[in-house]
Amino acid sequence: MFRIRTLSHWAVLLAALCLSLLASTVFAGAREIRGFAITVSNLDSAVAFYEQALGFEKVGERIVTDRNYDYLTGVFGTRVRSATLQLGDERIELEQYLAPSGQPIPVDSRSNDLWFQHFAVVVSDMERAYEHLRAFPILGISSAPQTIPESNKAAAGIKAYKFKDPDGHPLELLWFPSGKGKSKWQGADKGLFLGVDHSAIGISSTERSIAFYRDLIGLTVAGGTLNTGMTQEQLDNAFGAVVRITGLRPDRSESPGLEFLQYINPSGGRRAPSELRPNDLVLTRTVIQVDDLDALVVKLQGSGVTFVSPQVVSVNGEPWSKGLMVKDPDGHAVLLVQ
Question: At the topology level of CATH, where does 117-265 sit?
Answer without folding.
Answer: 2,3-Dihydroxybiphenyl 1,2-Dioxygenase; domain 1 (3.10.180)
